[in-house]
Model the fold of this input.
Amino acid sequence: SQELEQSPQSLIVQEGKNLTINCTSSKTLYGLYWYKQKYGEGLIFLMMLQKGGEEKSHEKITAKLDEKKQQSSLHITASQPSHAGIYLCGADAAGSGAGSYQLTFGKGTKLSVIP
Amino acid sequence: SAVISQKPSRDICQRGTSLTIQCQVDSQVTMMFWYRQQPGQSLTLIATANQGSEATYESGFVIDKFPISRPNLTFSTLTVSNMSPEDSSIYLCSVTPAAGGPYNEQFFGPGTRLTVL
Done:
């Protein structure tokens, strides 16, 4: 089964700084999802990547899936306090490429933004 | 995107009792899932809620402990039975709205925070 490792586990940045969160797997990533979770709440869907080399952006957040489809990065430009939360990557739990809707998740990266 | 609501949003329960969590979607969806997030941990899939048939459970989860219903394409319930403090978690439902392929957007409800004393 698919296992995802996120780094760093936690991150504290000054407002206005850029940051990057990584999600790595030893297997090929199929259907890579990024979510944001505020403490004790549900998950907010950010974006989903499928193809090697794919890159998507939403406001100041950009996510990329590398060509080998074994690593994804989430980049936040000019961070704001509203970006604070836990960022989770998720991927097809089967990790076989055959396709499933069930997701397995990394342990998350806790982001704090200091005003 | 689908709008998902869950009830209750939180509850505190006594050991040995059961709690039923409801998940309501504002539109018909193809797939519905239930996840658990234990304190300080990531999400773990409990089961896939199948409309009109028994849910499909992941390894480590059983129907007697987590009975699930899905009577239609917009609603599902998860019951946490005979609760113990180890069941204290956030329970989240998720949905995949569209058919036609596995890698579609998947949305999550706001979660139900359960504390078992």
User: Anything to note?
Assistant: The mean pLDDT of chain B is 91. The longest strand of chain B covers residues 89-96.
